[in-house]
Amino acid sequence: MTYTLYIGDKSFSSWSLRGLLMLENFNLPYRSKNIGLYSGHMAQDMAPLAPARLVPVLQTPEGDVVQDTLAIAETLAERHPDAGLWPRDASARTFARWIVAEMHSGFGPLRETCPMNLRQAIDGFDVPEAVLRDLERIELLWSTAQERFGRADSPWLFGDYSLADVFYAPVAARIAGYGLPVGPAAQAYVQAHLSDPAFRRWRAEGLCVSYDPVPYENAFPADAERRPWPGPARLPARAIDHGPSENATCPYSGDPVTDFLELNGRVFGFCNAFCRDKTVNDAAAYPKFMTIYQS
Protein backbone atom coordinates (compact mmCIF):
# COMPACT_ATOMS: atom_id res chain seq x y z
CA MET A 1 0.00 0.00 0.00
CA THR A 2 2.04 2.94 -1.31
CA TYR A 3 0.77 6.46 -1.91
CA THR A 4 2.04 8.73 -4.67
CA LEU A 5 2.51 12.37 -3.70
CA TYR A 6 2.82 14.96 -6.46
CA ILE A 7 4.73 17.98 -5.20
CA GLY A 8 6.07 21.33 -6.32
CA ASP A 9 9.52 22.83 -5.84
CA LYS A 10 10.87 22.09 -2.38
CA SER A 11 12.37 25.50 -1.75
CA PHE A 12 9.11 27.37 -2.33
CA SER A 13 6.00 25.15 -2.26
CA SER A 14 4.68 25.48 1.28
CA TRP A 15 1.58 23.41 0.51
CA SER A 16 3.74 20.59 -0.88
CA LEU A 17 5.83 20.64 2.29
CA ARG A 18 2.68 19.96 4.29
CA GLY A 19 1.82 17.00 2.08
CA LEU A 20 5.26 15.47 2.51
CA LEU A 21 5.29 15.90 6.29
CA MET A 22 1.93 14.14 6.60
CA LEU A 23 3.37 11.04 5.02
CA GLU A 24 6.97 11.17 6.22
CA ASN A 25 6.41 12.00 9.88
CA PHE A 26 3.60 9.48 10.33
CA ASN A 27 5.53 6.68 8.62
CA LEU A 28 3.06 6.19 5.78
CA PRO A 29 4.54 4.53 2.67
CA TYR A 30 4.83 6.83 -0.33
CA ARG A 31 6.81 7.85 -3.37
CA SER A 32 6.98 11.42 -4.59
CA LYS A 33 6.86 12.87 -8.08
CA ASN A 34 7.72 16.44 -9.01
CA ILE A 35 5.43 18.85 -10.80
CA GLY A 36 7.27 21.66 -12.59
CA LEU A 37 5.85 24.80 -11.01
CA TYR A 38 8.56 26.99 -12.53
CA SER A 39 9.56 24.91 -15.56
CA GLY A 40 6.65 25.89 -17.78
CA HIS A 41 5.37 22.30 -17.77
CA MET A 42 2.94 22.45 -14.87
CA ALA A 43 -0.24 22.04 -16.94
CA GLN A 44 1.28 19.12 -18.83
CA ASP A 45 2.49 17.47 -15.63
CA MET A 46 -0.91 17.90 -13.97
CA ALA A 47 -3.00 16.68 -16.92
CA PRO A 48 -3.11 13.01 -15.85
CA LEU A 49 -4.42 14.11 -12.43
CA ALA A 50 -7.40 16.13 -13.72
CA PRO A 51 -9.47 17.73 -12.36
CA ALA A 52 -6.68 18.43 -9.85
CA ARG A 53 -4.82 21.59 -10.82
CA LEU A 54 -2.68 22.52 -7.81
CA VAL A 55 -0.02 20.76 -5.75
CA PRO A 56 0.19 18.75 -3.65
CA VAL A 57 -1.92 15.94 -5.01
CA LEU A 58 -2.19 12.56 -3.31
CA GLN A 59 -2.96 9.42 -5.28
CA THR A 60 -4.11 6.52 -3.13
CA PRO A 61 -2.96 2.95 -3.76
CA GLU A 62 -6.39 2.34 -5.32
CA GLY A 63 -5.86 5.21 -7.77
CA ASP A 64 -8.10 7.86 -6.20
CA VAL A 65 -6.79 11.41 -6.60
CA VAL A 66 -7.05 13.97 -3.77
CA GLN A 67 -6.13 17.65 -4.09
CA ASP A 68 -5.78 20.16 -1.23
CA THR A 69 -3.85 19.60 1.97
CA LEU A 70 -6.89 19.64 4.23
CA ALA A 71 -8.61 17.00 2.11
CA ILE A 72 -5.39 14.97 2.03
CA ALA A 73 -5.07 15.25 5.81
CA GLU A 74 -8.60 14.02 6.43
CA THR A 75 -8.21 11.23 3.89
CA LEU A 76 -5.04 9.95 5.56
CA ALA A 77 -6.51 10.28 9.06
CA GLU A 78 -9.56 8.28 7.98
CA ARG A 79 -7.48 5.59 6.30
CA HIS A 80 -4.94 5.34 9.15
CA PRO A 81 -6.86 5.89 12.41
CA ASP A 82 -4.05 4.43 14.53
CA ALA A 83 -1.27 6.56 13.03
CA GLY A 84 -1.95 9.49 15.38
CA LEU A 85 -2.35 12.21 12.77
CA TRP A 86 -4.86 14.03 15.00
CA PRO A 87 -4.50 14.18 18.81
CA ARG A 88 -6.20 11.26 20.52
CA ASP A 89 -7.81 13.38 23.25
CA ALA A 90 -11.19 14.66 22.01
CA SER A 91 -10.77 18.22 23.31
CA ALA A 92 -7.27 18.46 21.90
CA ARG A 93 -8.48 17.08 18.58
CA THR A 94 -11.26 19.67 18.42
CA PHE A 95 -8.83 22.53 18.98
CA ALA A 96 -6.28 21.05 16.57
CA ARG A 97 -8.89 20.95 13.81
CA TRP A 98 -9.82 24.54 14.57
CA ILE A 99 -6.30 25.92 14.26
CA VAL A 100 -5.54 23.81 11.18
CA ALA A 101 -8.65 25.17 9.48
CA GLU A 102 -7.69 28.72 10.45
CA MET A 103 -4.23 28.20 8.98
CA HIS A 104 -5.70 26.68 5.84
CA SER A 105 -8.05 29.58 5.16
CA GLY A 106 -6.42 32.56 6.84
CA PHE A 107 -3.31 34.66 7.39
CA GLY A 108 -3.38 36.16 3.91
CA PRO A 109 -1.04 39.06 4.69
CA LEU A 110 1.65 36.69 6.00
CA ARG A 111 1.33 34.40 2.98
CA GLU A 112 1.36 37.22 0.43
CA THR A 113 4.09 39.36 1.99
CA CYS A 114 6.40 36.52 3.04
CA PRO A 115 6.26 33.66 0.51
CA MET A 116 8.16 30.63 1.76
CA ASN A 117 11.77 30.61 0.57
CA LEU A 118 14.00 27.97 2.15
CA ARG A 119 17.09 29.02 0.21
CA GLN A 120 18.10 32.02 2.32
CA ALA A 121 17.34 34.11 5.38
CA ILE A 122 17.54 37.84 5.99
CA ASP A 123 17.71 40.41 8.78
CA GLY A 124 16.06 43.79 8.85
CA PHE A 125 12.81 42.91 7.07
CA ASP A 126 10.29 45.74 7.43
CA VAL A 127 7.23 43.89 8.71
CA PRO A 128 3.87 45.42 7.69
CA GLU A 129 1.26 45.98 10.36
CA ALA A 130 -1.07 43.38 8.85
CA VAL A 131 1.65 40.73 9.11
CA LEU A 132 2.30 41.70 12.73
CA ARG A 133 -1.39 41.12 13.44
CA ASP A 134 -1.18 37.68 11.81
CA LEU A 135 1.85 36.83 13.93
CA GLU A 136 0.07 37.95 17.09
CA ARG A 137 -2.85 35.68 16.28
CA ILE A 138 -0.57 32.74 15.42
CA GLU A 139 1.32 33.12 18.69
CA LEU A 140 -1.98 33.09 20.59
CA LEU A 141 -3.08 29.87 18.88
CA TRP A 142 0.29 28.22 19.48
CA SER A 143 0.48 29.22 23.13
CA THR A 144 -3.12 28.18 23.80
CA ALA A 145 -2.49 24.74 22.32
CA GLN A 146 0.74 24.23 24.25
CA GLU A 147 -0.66 25.49 27.55
CA ARG A 148 -3.82 23.39 27.34
CA PHE A 149 -2.60 20.26 25.62
CA GLY A 150 1.19 20.31 25.33
CA ARG A 151 3.84 18.52 27.39
CA ALA A 152 6.97 19.86 29.02
CA ASP A 153 9.06 17.14 27.36
CA SER A 154 7.84 17.94 23.83
CA PRO A 155 8.13 21.05 21.63
CA TRP A 156 4.97 20.25 19.64
CA LEU A 157 1.61 21.96 20.00
CA PHE A 158 -0.33 18.98 21.35
CA GLY A 159 2.44 16.96 22.96
CA ASP A 160 2.88 14.41 20.20
CA TYR A 161 3.55 15.64 16.68
CA SER A 162 0.24 16.05 14.87
CA LEU A 163 -1.37 17.50 11.77
CA ALA A 164 -1.46 20.85 13.54
CA ASP A 165 2.34 20.89 13.48
CA VAL A 166 2.32 19.82 9.82
CA PHE A 167 0.16 22.79 8.85
CA TYR A 168 2.24 25.32 10.78
CA ALA A 169 5.63 24.10 9.51
CA PRO A 170 5.65 26.60 6.60
CA VAL A 171 4.76 29.39 9.04
CA ALA A 172 7.83 28.44 11.07
CA ALA A 173 9.87 28.59 7.87
CA ARG A 174 8.58 32.08 7.12
CA ILE A 175 9.36 33.32 10.64
CA ALA A 176 12.86 31.88 10.35
CA GLY A 177 13.58 33.10 6.83
CA TYR A 178 12.32 36.65 7.23
CA GLY A 179 13.42 37.07 10.85
CA LEU A 180 9.84 37.86 11.88
CA PRO A 181 9.37 39.07 15.46
CA VAL A 182 7.85 36.49 17.80
CA GLY A 183 8.39 35.73 21.47
CA PRO A 184 10.71 33.12 23.03
CA ALA A 185 8.10 30.34 23.18
CA ALA A 186 7.21 30.80 19.52
CA GLN A 187 10.90 30.92 18.58
CA ALA A 188 11.43 27.61 20.37
CA TYR A 189 8.58 26.11 18.37
CA VAL A 190 10.09 27.45 15.15
CA GLN A 191 13.40 25.83 16.02
CA ALA A 192 11.67 22.51 16.60
CA HIS A 193 10.49 22.60 12.98
CA LEU A 194 13.89 23.66 11.65
CA SER A 195 15.42 20.71 13.53
CA ASP A 196 12.85 18.16 12.32
CA PRO A 197 14.82 15.66 10.17
CA ALA A 198 12.06 15.45 7.56
CA PHE A 199 12.00 19.25 7.24
CA ARG A 200 15.80 19.33 7.00
CA ARG A 201 15.87 16.71 4.24
CA TRP A 202 13.17 18.57 2.32
CA ARG A 203 15.20 21.76 2.47
CA ALA A 204 18.50 20.04 1.61
CA GLU A 205 16.98 18.49 -1.50
CA GLY A 206 15.43 21.79 -2.59
CA LEU A 207 18.86 23.40 -2.47
CA CYS A 208 20.08 20.96 -5.15
CA VAL A 209 17.95 22.72 -7.80
CA SER A 210 19.23 25.79 -9.66
CA TYR A 211 16.94 28.62 -10.82
CA ASP A 212 17.39 31.57 -13.16
CA PRO A 213 15.69 33.71 -12.09
CA VAL A 214 15.09 32.55 -8.53
CA PRO A 215 11.35 32.55 -7.70
CA TYR A 216 10.20 35.09 -5.11
CA GLU A 217 13.62 36.72 -5.04
CA ASN A 218 11.95 40.14 -5.04
CA ALA A 219 10.16 39.30 -1.77
CA PHE A 220 13.48 40.00 -0.05
CA PRO A 221 14.43 43.70 -0.25
CA ALA A 222 17.55 44.32 -2.31
CA ASP A 223 19.29 45.98 0.64
CA ALA A 224 18.35 43.25 3.15
CA GLU A 225 21.24 41.65 4.98
CA ARG A 226 21.54 37.97 4.15
CA ARG A 227 22.36 35.64 7.04
CA PRO A 228 22.94 31.90 7.44
CA TRP A 229 19.87 29.70 7.57
CA PRO A 230 18.90 29.57 11.27
CA GLY A 231 18.44 25.82 11.50
CA PRO A 232 20.96 23.37 12.95
CA ALA A 233 24.52 23.98 11.82
CA ARG A 234 25.41 21.79 8.85
CA LEU A 235 28.42 19.50 8.87
CA PRO A 236 31.29 20.90 6.74
CA ALA A 237 30.87 18.52 3.81
CA ARG A 238 31.96 19.54 0.32
CA ALA A 239 31.70 17.98 -3.11
CA ILE A 240 34.95 16.73 -4.64
CA ASP A 241 35.81 15.35 -8.08
CA HIS A 242 37.17 11.91 -7.30
CA GLY A 243 37.63 9.09 -4.80
CA PRO A 244 38.52 6.59 -3.66
CA SER A 245 35.82 6.55 -1.00
CA GLU A 246 35.44 4.57 2.19
CA ASN A 247 32.21 3.05 0.88
CA ALA A 248 31.84 1.17 -2.39
CA THR A 249 28.07 1.54 -2.68
CA CYS A 250 25.71 4.47 -2.24
CA PRO A 251 24.17 4.64 1.25
CA TYR A 252 20.75 5.36 -0.29
CA SER A 253 20.45 3.12 -3.37
CA GLY A 254 23.12 0.47 -2.81
CA ASP A 255 24.45 1.14 -6.33
CA PRO A 256 28.17 1.59 -7.11
CA VAL A 257 29.56 5.04 -6.30
CA THR A 258 30.37 7.60 -8.98
CA ASP A 259 30.23 10.97 -7.12
CA PHE A 260 32.10 11.99 -3.98
CA LEU A 261 32.17 14.31 -1.00
CA GLU A 262 34.77 15.05 1.64
CA LEU A 263 33.87 15.51 5.29
CA ASN A 264 36.50 16.10 7.97
CA GLY A 265 39.23 14.57 5.85
CA ARG A 266 37.23 11.46 4.92
CA VAL A 267 35.81 10.68 1.47
CA PHE A 268 32.39 9.10 0.84
CA GLY A 269 30.78 8.06 -2.42
CA PHE A 270 27.29 8.19 -3.91
CA CYS A 271 25.55 6.81 -6.99
CA ASN A 272 24.79 10.20 -8.53
CA ALA A 273 25.30 13.92 -8.03
CA PHE A 274 21.90 14.44 -6.41
CA CYS A 275 22.58 11.89 -3.66
CA ARG A 276 25.93 13.57 -3.04
CA ASP A 277 24.64 17.14 -3.14
CA LYS A 278 21.69 16.65 -0.79
CA THR A 279 24.14 15.10 1.67
CA VAL A 280 26.54 18.03 1.28
CA ASN A 281 23.64 20.37 2.04
CA ASP A 282 22.76 18.71 5.36
CA ALA A 283 24.59 15.46 6.01
CA ALA A 284 23.31 15.02 9.56
CA ALA A 285 19.70 14.91 8.29
CA TYR A 286 20.33 11.56 6.56
CA PRO A 287 20.54 8.58 8.94
CA LYS A 288 21.77 6.20 6.21
CA PHE A 289 24.75 8.44 5.55
CA MET A 290 25.42 9.10 9.21
CA THR A 291 25.53 5.35 9.84
CA ILE A 292 28.55 4.96 7.57
CA TYR A 293 30.08 8.26 8.71
CA GLN A 294 29.91 7.24 12.36
CA SER A 295 31.11 3.67 11.75
UniProtKB/TrEMBL annotation:
Keywords per UniProt: Transferase
Domain called GST N-terminal: residue spans: 1-84
GO annotation terms (biological process): glutathione metabolic process; L-phenylalanine catabolic process
Keyword Coiled coil: no
InterPro entries named among the record's database cross-references: Glutathione-S-Trfase_C_sf (IPR036282), Glutathione_S-Trfase_N (IPR004045), Thioredoxin-like_sf (IPR036249)
Signal peptide location: none
Top-level taxon of the source organism: Bacteria
GO MF entry, a single one: glutathione transferase activity
Annotated protein name in UniProt: Glutathione S-transferase family protein
Organism field: Actibacterium atlanticum
